[in-house]
Amino acid sequence: MILIARTTPLEDVKKPSEGLSLFFIDFDKNTPGLELTKIKKMGGKAVNANEVFFDNYRVPVDTRIGKEGQGFRILEKP
């Protein structure tokens, strides 16, 4: 899973798009701090849709893509 997360507090950046880092993480629903809630849909039931909640979820620094705080810029690149 590609995860974008705030790694610099919002009050320490000039724009809300700054201070976000990008990570490539293993997606194991049994990992502590990760919760999935199924989204009820009217159609398209062949593919599951879920809300994903993180609470004290540990993300190793070696899963980071690019430099810290540059995640939004990476996503903007064509």
TrEMBL record:
The keyword Oxidoreductase applies. The keyword Oxidoreductase applies. It comes from the Eukaryota. Keywords: Oxidoreductase. SUPFAM superfamilies: Acyl-CoA dehydrogenase NM domain-like (SSF56645). This is Uncharacterized protein. It comes from Lepraria finkii.
